[in-house]
Each structure stands twice: as structure tokens, then as C-alpha cells.
Amino acid sequence: MSGEITEFTAEIPVWRPHVTPVSLEEASEAQREALKVTPSNTRVSDYVLVLAHDHESLGARTPLFNAIMYDRGGLSRAERELGALGASVVNRCIYCAAVHASRFNQLTKEPEVTEAVFADGEAAELDPRRAAILRFAVRLSRSPCAAGEEDVAALRAAGLTEAEILDLVLSAALFGWANRLMHTLGAPVARG
Questions:
Q1: What is the DSSP letter of 18?
Q2: Residue 26: CB atoms within 10 Å
Q3: Are 94 and 163 in the same domain?
Q4: What is the pLDDT of residues 129-143, one digit of tens each?
Q5: What are 16's strand-pairing partners?
Q6: Are 65 and 81 within one domain?
Q7: Global model pTM greater than 0.90
Q8: CB atoms closer than 10 angstroms to residue 29
Q9: Which of 36, 70, 104 is a domain's end point?
Q10: What is the DSSP string of 105-134?
């Protein structure tokens, strides 16, 4: 695809779908109902509008997504974004990596963290807690059995509770799935 972005960036590109998104004006009642649970109240993304072709799946996906990424308690929002970023880097999902890097940067005001992740991946020099989170998310995303007991022990040693570890597993796993949908349904392209 012309203009496709192939390098990681914290600047969110345009996601160009391969499938024509559902038109809000022409959406069925079932599609409109499924679209009501989207996390953004400013605009519905083309990605979500593509997913609306299967309104039943979208109706199940969005509450799950919202619960994993936005629920209170457990892992902080920024650390959930770091886990999702680790998964997206492993899966080479340029669009999702940009979204999670951007959100992490907004939440923490520490763009040097995502720059280090983009430059060095799992070997990025981060504080012990973030390093353990990134390492676990990366290994889990490469292959679930690659994240072993020593990785869980490192998470505990870095101060993560059982609830936070579960949130990390869920955020990385969610984006292992979402990255694959993004890849098959569209591609990131440069703005402009």
C-alpha cells in the first residue's frame, strides 16, 4: 500500500482499512447498538466501523476492551499501555504501537521510555518495575510459554500484585489479538 508506515513512532498514523467501514448513516439498528459502547465519545474510528460489520462480535469486544484497559484498580493505565506496547512491538503493529506509545507518553510525560522501547525492545533500560512489565509482555507475546516463572517472579519482585499481573496478562493478550485484526483489516499510512 502506498505511503504505508513501517517504522515505530509515537505519532499516531492514519489507519487505512482494506474493508469499507460501516457508514453511520446506513448502519442497522443492531450495528448502532453495538457502536454505543465504544470508548471514544468524540468520533468512531474506521477500525471500529469495520468491526461493526459483525455487530455481535463488536458488542462483545468493546466491553471486554474497556474492562481490560480502563477499569479502576489493579495495574495503572500507563502500565497497561506499556504492556500493550510490548505486545504491539513484538507483533510489528505500527498503528497500535503508536497509539499505546502516545497514550503512555500522555499519561506519564516520559517519552524517553517509549523511545527506549522502540530503540531497544525488551532490552530497553527502564526502571526495574517497567523493565519487568515490558519483558513479561514481550515474552508472553512472542510465545505464551516463553514467559516463565522467572518472569512472574521478576514482576512480584518489582512490586506487582497478583491483580496487577493479571491486568498485564490481559492487556498483552488483548493486543496480541487486536494487532492481528489491525494487520489483516488495514494498514498504517502517513498523515497528509
A1: S
A2: 7
A3: yes
A4: 999 999 999 999 999
A5: 187
A6: no
A7: yes
A8: 8
A9: 70
A10: HHHHS-HHHHHHHHHHGGG----HHHHHHH
* Model pLDDT for residues 79-106, shown as the tens digit of each residue: 999 999 999 999 999 999 999 999 999 9
**Where are any strands of DSSP class E within 6-52?**
14-17
End position of a domain, from candidates 52, 70, 88: 70
Domain that holds residue 25: 14-70
What letter would DSSP give residue 42? S
CA distances from 44 to 59, 134, 136 (A): 14, 30, 32
Whether residues 107 and 64 share a domain: the answer is: no
Amino acid present at 124: A
CA dist 154 and 135 (Å) reads 9
The answer on 89 and 55 residing in a single domain is no
Q: Evaluate if residue 50 carries a pLDDT over 60.
A: yes
CA 182 to chain CA mean position, Å? 10
To 10 degrees, what angle do helices 77-90 and 55-70 make? Answer: 120
Cell 447498538 sits on residue = 33
**Domain for residue 2, yes or no?**
no
